[in-house]
Each structure stands twice: as structure tokens, then as C-alpha cells.
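Reproducibility note. Readers wishing to regenerate the assembly model reported in the main text can use the exact inputs given here. Chain order matters: entities are listed in the order in which they were concatenated for prediction.
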Amino acid sequence: MKKTTKLAPAPKAALPAASEPRRRPTINDVARLANVSKKTVSRVINQSPFVNKETRKRIDAVIAELGYAPDPVARGLASRRSYLVGLIYDNPNPQHVIDTQQGILDIIRGSGLELVVHPCNRRDKDFLPGVRGFIDRQKLAGVILPSSVSEDEELVALLRDSDTPYVRIASVLLDNEENSIVTHDREGARQAAEHLAGLGHKTIAHVSGPDTFRSSHERRAGFMEGLKAAGLSLDKKLDLRGAYTFQSGVDAGRKLMGQAMKPTAVFCGNDEMAAGVCQAIRETGLDIAKDVSVVGFDDSPLASRMWPALTTVLLPVKATGRMASVRLLGDRLTKEPLEEDSHGEVHPRLVVRASTGPVRPAYGA
Amino acid sequence: MKKTTKLAPAPKAALPAASEPRRRPTINDVARLANVSKKTVSRVINQSPFVNKETRKRIDAVIAELGYAPDPVARGLASRRSYLVGLIYDNPNPQHVIDTQQGILDIIRGSGLELVVHPCNRRDKDFLPGVRGFIDRQKLAGVILPSSVSEDEELVALLRDSDTPYVRIASVLLDNEENSIVTHDREGARQAAEHLAGLGHKTIAHVSGPDTFRSSHERRAGFMEGLKAAGLSLDKKLDLRGAYTFQSGVDAGRKLMGQAMKPTAVFCGNDEMAAGVCQAIRETGLDIAKDVSVVGFDDSPLASRMWPALTTVLLPVKATGRMASVRLLGDRLTKEPLEEDSHGEVHPRLVVRASTGPVRPAYGA
DNA sequence: CGGGTCTATGACACCGGTTTCCTTGCCCGC
DNA sequence: GCGGGCAAGGAAACCGGTGTCATAGACCCG
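Running the prediction on these inputs yields the following C-alpha cells for the assembly.
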């Protein structure tokens, strides 16, 4: 149906009406067939209340018949809001990233939104410019900030004045409840301490995460709380700092097992380091659980696949991603958000497996 | 500088020229300041050769001064090609997904392209419609198909006639060399077999992946080749099928260790299953390596964190993602693609760790 | 019965680029 | 001296929607 009005100079080689390349229908097609203006079609698409029932029905019929779907790019241009939600993260645990991602995808599936992943490095000098470029080029529908970046106030400021909606995921409430999901890591660590104390351990070590993460502090603080509640305290020699990596766990473990005051139990800031500590323990010929109990944090896949399986604190990362998405997009979602996802608070939970056991009288202090 | 030509009815409340909300500069701003038409600016942006050196220089200067960057959404609308590259995958191993993703991101970083991740489920009845919607709504710059979906001919057909560029990653060459990355899983499996045979093992079992993945067949075939070369063969009782999951590995391992003909070594289709097999072996009180050797495939993080660390076949997934991106985007990338990334072939490599050892005479057949 | 409010709809500019097509010099060969 | 080819650049339509504003009719109220 190309209009050949203005005395067109016959299209190049006259392919004998070569079966129309099958263009996607546009809003104009719909408007024409429904005999309304495109603006009214637009109203129907955007669920404006000011459309007559009959008209709406007619338009819906045409839409269905044509299999029309609005072009997100065009919509984005006109409305200055793309249909993309961004996930910005700073490397950390790949498993963590993928779980968050999966949670978000669970929620936006079928809503017409898509997920754009944008890793970055907070230590890069052009970290902020990079993210800024991303943000204001892509006019995102919203951004989700997992814990690896949620504490970066500069980044948040950027989002705020670019006027992009965002949700922060963090171990404590950082600002507004409206745009935060709180994971309460502290509670989980406390449970870990109570578990170990309950098994009779008194000489308990801690390998915390890097200083730059709020979660490290929270986990450590929760652990201390738990110890205190059990009438215990943390000896300086048993208080080590790692980097959330396997290797740092190995190093910490070696240090712990190499010194005079050996712990009968170790609580680690995450599972990676716990696995490292386990390796160090084994290197000294000791047994996990029987000689030294180990507790991790995260319940990563590693935890359940290790031998012995790791006692750890389960942090439901995927659910957190879902919650964050609901918080961010609430209204735009077709399907009702699950009750579960509506309150913005996540509580960790201890999962007891085989890496912890009662303190061994002969060995302990 | 809003033009207030047509006797405008003074803007609502006359905010005293409230410090201009700082709009992003557009191509029009650039054109005006450089004293050219927007088309010429467009030519500069798109590196058209037909622009006078002087003119180009002037425009570049204005662009730099303004900090102008073209709006990808507008460009997308006009050129019918967004600046998004899509990664479509069907669940599999999260680690695999994240590595691929990381590889792609390595390449597109700084190119103005962004990565959209789109998981799907090939067993869903609306799998194809779903992907189709994604594809032709988003007019992607390109799509990368990792092995979990690269074999789906219907999907590929879809891409082909939606005329979206794509690259398939697979264990064997599926069609055109132009748009494929081949990982040669077979070679890796062969190495695994040779390694075990070299250690004196004769009763070797295999736990393969699900039938629906080409990689399962390739790995199994490679393993058989290796055995054959060593004058060995695979007994039916030692030839099990798993599902690439940890649990399926546990099940397979129990079956193997519960039967009369026990293997002295097991080669598994991936690391997850290998970890499962290890668990099953331990349950029977036997030792990994000393009693039964185990080899995995992938070199996932799990492999190096297990105890004993798993001998496995390293498949450089991230590098594969990089290659795929270069294949897909070649020209559009600013930085020169690394030599490494240019040939489209990936070769796995055996990594020997602690889970394999010489056959134990007393125990073996 | 005039005027005000509310519903339903359309006209038209606009979002920020690209595409198509056209013009203008300028150089070249004959 | 002139047609032709090519480099350089511009005007206007266009991509497929949304925003702003105008308008027509229905209804309501004093």
C-alpha cells in the first residue's frame, strides 16, 4: 500500500509486486482501521480512562487482529523514558549477580520491560562518568542497585538528579523506605554466633569481608551481638579481615591454624572465604566439624556442594531482586506482585549442614 | 534559548528564568553552533567520508565543548537498529551465563552498546513467540546465542528472517563460519580420557549430560575417542546419563558405586555432576583420587574450591563470549579486537588437580 | 437558559536522530 | 565551451509514538 501519489518515478526495477516485505503494523495502521486518531489508540495502549468503552473495544479488536505491539523505541523517544531497567553492579560474587538478575527477570517478564546489565568498577577513575553516560543516554525506566553499589552516595546523587527511579538493596536502611530493600545481614550473623555458642564453642574466630562493604560491618556486628548474648567475646587474634574471596579465606585460615590460640569454630563473612578456611584447616590435617566448625554466609551453590556441606546463613538474593523490582516498578506490572514481595524487608536464615558440630573437649580451650 | 516566536502566551508562572533545567545537548544544538545542518553533524557522528576536514574539525570541537553524545533511542528509531545487543539463554549453569555475559561486556564496554539479557525456556509452549516479540520489538544490533540455545533451528530461523545479526556458540560448527564460534568440547573430553588412561585406569565410567544438548554428545564422543585410542572401551554398565545437575551426579555416583562393577575413575559431563559423584563416592567411605579418580568439565569455580580440588577440562567461556561479540560487532567496535579473539575457535584444556591419581592395584579390576 | 464541568476525541507539534533527494561548486576531458 | 562526474552539504520527510491544547457534546446547577 505504498502511496505512489506524487508522480513517482517508478520504483527501480519493477519487481512484480514482490510479496510486501511484511512490515510490522504501526499505530497508524491501527488508527486507520479503527477509524480513530492515533492519539486515541495511544490512549488505549496507555490505559487512559478517558476512552469510550465501545471505542476501546473496537481498537482492541484491531490491535488483536493486526498483532500490533507498540514500538518501545519510539515510545521511549517520545516519552523520554525507555522500557529498560538497569542493573548496575560492581563485580562482586558472580552468583550474587546472577541471582539478583534472575529475580528481576522473574518480575519483569511479560511486562514489556527488558533488563540491561551494566557492571562497573568503583575504583576506576572514570567510574562516575561512565555510569552517568549510561544513565542519561538510556533514560532508563528504573535502576536497581544491589549491595555492591548501593552505598555509593555519589552514584545515588547522580540518579537522583538525572531523575531516574531507583531502588537500593542494602544490609541496613540507607535512606528512604520507599526505594530501599533491607536485607538485615546482622540478624543472620547473630544466628550463626548463637548456633556455634550453642554447640559449646568458646574460642570462635571471625573472618570478615573487606572494610569497604557495609555488609562486612553488619555481619561482624551481628556476630559480636550473638557472642555477647552468649557471654562470649571475640579475641583480637581471632578477628581477621579477608576480601570475600576464596584465596583470602585460605590465607586467613592458615593464619588462624598456625597460631597458638587455635579456634574451635570459625564464622566467615561469606561462603567463598569459608571454603578457603576449610581448605586451610584440611591442610593441617584436621577435620571440618569434628575438629573445627565452620560457618559461611550466603548459601551459595558452593555451600551445598562442598564436603562436608557447609553450615551457612541463607540470604535469599533472588527474592531480594524480585522485591526490588516490585518496589521499582510496582504500578507498571501487569501481574499482581506476590504478597511475599511487597514489604521490602529480607531476613536471612541459618541453614545447618555438616560443617558444624559440638566442640571437641580434648581439643578446645 | 527557546524560541518564543509565535506570539507565545507567556509561559505559565514566570519563574525568573530559573537556571535552565540543563537539557542534554542535541544534534540541533551542535548544528547551530557549528553553523552547519544537522545532517552534516550526523555525517560526522557516523564517520561518513564525505565531510570536509575543516568542517569535521569544527564540528568535533563543538561536540567536545558541549559534551554532546547522540541519543541512542532516537538513533534507534530513525535507523531501525537499536544500540542493544541481546544475550538469549536457556537457564543452564548460572556460572556459564555470567561468564559469557562478562565476556560480551568486556568487548562492548565503551562502544555505546549495552547488553540486554533475555532468558527463556525452550520447553515453554510460548518460547518462540516470546523470543520473537523480544527480537522484533527491540530491533537489536545483534544477538548472541550461547550453547544452550544455539542449536535451536527455529530460533535461528526467526533471527534470520527478522534480519537481526547473530552469532552462535556451539561445540561444533552449526552453519556458517561467519557467525559461529566453535568450542570443540570433543577435544577436551578426549584429553580427559587420555589422562585417566595414562594413570592406568581401565574401568572408567562416564556420566554424560542430557540428551538434548549437543555438548553432551560431543563430550561423550570425545571421551570415547580417547578411550579407544588407549585401547579401552566403555562398558554399558558404566555409561550413565545425568542432567548436568549436582543431584543427577549424586544419583549417578550412587548407582555406579552400588553395582558390582565399580569404576576406578569417572569422567563427568560437567563439574556439577562431578561434585555430585564425589559426594556419592564419599558416602561409601571411599576416597577421591586414592580410590576413585574423578574428572569434570568446565572448570567452574566449584572445581578449584572443592576438596580435593577437581581435575577438569577448562572451557574458556568468557573468552568465548568475547569472541562472539567481536564476530558480531567487528566493525562497530572502536578498540581493535585482540588477536586472540579473532579466529572463532576455542580449544578446551585439561587442568589436572587433586581428584585424579594412579589406579590403585588392590582395588582396580 | 447561560455558563461551568466533565467526558471523549482529534489536530498538530515534537522527541532527536537518519534517509532521501537535491543543489552547488569544481575539476576534467574533449 | 560544455556536459559529466564527484565532493560537500543542505531541506524536508520520516521513524512511531506521546504531549499540549482545542473542541464538541452531555450534563448539571442556580
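We highlight two features of this model. The interface with chain B takes residues 24, 69, 71-74, 76-77, 82, 84, 94-95, 97-99, 101-102, 105, 112, 114-119, 133-134, 136-139, 246, 272, 275-276, 278-279, 282, 301-302, 304-307 of chain A (CB under 8 Å). The first strand of chain A starts at residue 84 and ends at 89.
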